[in-house]
Amino acid sequence: MAVPLLDLHFQNAPLLAEMRTAFEQIIDSSRFVLGERVQQFEQQLAQQCGTACAVGVSSGTDALLVALMALGIGPGDEVVTPAFTFFATAGCVQRVGATPVFVDIDPVTFNMDPDLIEPALTPRTRAVIPVHLYGQAASMGPIMRVARRHGLAVIEDAAQAIAARDGDQRVGSIGDVGCLSFYPTKNLSALGDAGACVTNDAELAQRLACLRVHGQDTKYHHNCIGGNFRIDALQAAMLQIKLTHLASWTDARRAAARCYDQLLTGLPLVCPKEADGRYHVYNQYTVRVTGGCRDRLCRHLARQGIGHEVYYPVPLHLQPCFSHLGTKRGALPVTEQAAGEVLSLPIYPGLTRSQQEEVASEIRRFLAQEGQG
Fold it and tell me: Which of 32, 157, 175, 252 is the most exposed place for a label (fewest CB within 10 A)?
């Protein structure tokens, strides 16, 4: 049985009639960018995230970029961030002219190790970007304490983690601003690119909204230089429809994760662990494959038609475009080990137990062949 890494049909097919109606309404209105549908979605998104404000933008990457711009971070500034994350986290720091400073991760959650932030600070440090990787909240309490002690802004990269919680706080609502992605692989997915910034700071939200339209506060009057970071009305309408299903889809992901936990018991794999006091939303179900055989397992799964992915095989500090920073191989040992061991398995609403059994069976068969089963 072939099992795809992701199958959006289960989510989209039952909503087609509603989505077509919304599409026709937008066609009739001829308001394709920003507008009333965007405002409605922003209000509902802010409520979902437990924040006062939400500002829709063109992608998760642009959410990070405009957040940095709104906080005035630029040349000469440093931003502390993990190297085990999607490229945009540090790429956007570089794009505004600031310097990413990479720190290592916790080996269990794969998130930034809060104890390593303070040693990385210099007089030039302006912000910290914790990443809620794979759908699990970073340890925000210690991160916020360090940041507040040193007067640093906190930008939460919650691209993979909408609805995740640290204690009773939802990701995106804890720092100064949270950045969300609605790329089609995310738990709340658009029909293309879209993103948002969420914040409890109304003044910051106003700056974000200004920057997304080239820095204009009123038409053709520009107080600053921004960019074209606007969200389409069509994407906002689709997301508005899907937002009402996010809770049930999250429950389905969590149930699938528990099923994998059972099916993979006894194998020489390290399954993901929901940290105490956290609420993991499993954008990815990521295991560690020890023993140096991860890549061979990937090839085996590919031959059997089992979807899988490695997020991420090359940490950011080892990417050629960041070589000028001088962070050498061996500097972030936990990150580097994770990059050689992690493997994400199919997980999405609609994934059946029989599909998960097939995935587990092929993993078990491969490990037996390797003498590890």
Answer: 32
Place of tokens 């437990």: 50
The CB-based long-range contact list for 287-293 (8 Å cut-off, 24+ gap) reads 287/342, 287/343, 287/344, 287/345, 288/338, 288/341, 288/342, 288/343, 289/341, 289/342, 289/343, 290/341, 291/370, 291/372, 292/340, 293/366, 293/367, 293/370, 293/372
310 vs 17: CA distance, rounded Å: 35
**pLDDT at residue 231, as a whole number:** 97
Tokens of 67: 């957040």
Query: What residue type is 141 in one-letter code?
Result: G
How far apart CA 363 and CA 301 sit, in angstroms, is 8
The verdict on residue 3 lying in a domain is: no
Over the stretch 198-248, which tens digit does the pLDDT of each residue have?
Answer: 999 999 999 999 999 999 988 899 999 999 999 999 999 999 999 999 999
Looking up residue 57, the CATH number of its domain turns out to be 3.40.640.10
Domains: count for the chain: 2
Could you tell me the residue range of the domain that residue 255 belongs to?
246-369
**Claim to verify: residue 225 and residue 94 sit in the same structural domain:** yes
Statement to judge: residues 195 and 251 lie in one domain: no
User: Which of residues 214, 243, 272 is at a domain's end?
Assistant: 243
Last residue of a domain, one of 211, 243, 275: 243
User: Which residues, 6 or more positions from 326, have their beta carbon under 8 angstroms from its beta carbon?
Assistant: none
| Overall pTM surpassing 0.85 (yes/no) | yes
Cα–Cα distance between 230 and 261 in angstroms, integer?
41
